[in-house]
Amino acid sequence: MLKLNNLIHLSVATVVLLLLPGPDSYAQTGSETLAVPAAEINRTSNTTGLQHSPGATPTHWRRNSIKFSANLLMPGITYSFALNNHIALQANVYTSSFVYFTDDWIQLFGGWSGTSTAYTPEVRYYAMEGPRGPAGIYMGLYARYRHDEATGEFVNWGFIGPSTTDYSKAEMHSFGGGTVVGYQWIAKKGFTLDVFGGVGIMHDKTWTSENAYKHAPIVHNGFRPSGMGGCSLGYSF
Q1: Among candidate residues 42, 23, 90, 54, the one with its CA nearest the CA of residue 236
Q2: Among 80, 81, 78, which Cα is nearest to 94's?
Q3: Closest by CA position to 198, among listed 234, 232, 230
Q4: Fewest Cβ atoms closer than 10 Å to its Cβ: which of 100, 129, 162, 234?
Q5: Are 187 and 173 in contact (CB under 8 A)?
Q6: Which of 49, 181, 78, 63 is nearest to 130 (CA)?
Q7: Global pTM value
Q8: What is the number of alpha carbons within 13 Å of residue 58 lying toward its C-beta?
Q9: What is the pLDDT of residues 136-192, one digit of tens each?
């Protein structure tokens, strides 16, 4: 009878051991519980809305940039904001000063001096997806408003009578737009180089004072071809 009881206990213990999961099963269950799909990680970590190439290491994507024109004749400042991998909005302001002397031998002293200011909003499409921001070859459309203002001071020598001085003023408002193509490069630290060129058309409207000299440098009315070009240096962040 004792041997029978021992045999029954041994059989029950064997069945219990067979039903219990082994160490490998615990490890597999734990890994399945802690595992998070890669797609979910990418979805939650990508808060900028920008897509990275499969297998690429995510880097800081520089959406904003501030650039300064390297054109010494008409310096300016530009701010750019990237909507996504391919499209960026840009606005820039250019300004310059000029001096213009007439070629009239009677007016040996005097001439025109003035300023030019241009406001240019722009939209760009970048052909490639830059790893650090909008970079590479691009093309875009721009609109432009330009204001030129000049004042003249001229000494009329009187060979018979006294000499006189004339003061004149001219002002020109221009509206237009065109297309632009270029290439933008962004370094790992954010330093940015932008090289561009474009063509367009402008419409000028000029106002002059009653005694404005006929050789005023900015007198023009109507349509005319226009262009833009140069390079800018700046920083993207």
Answers
A1: 90
A2: 78
A3: 230
A4: 162
A5: no
A6: 63
A7: 0.67
A8: 11
A9: 999 999 999 999 998 887 776 666 666 667 778 889 999 999 999 999 999 999 999
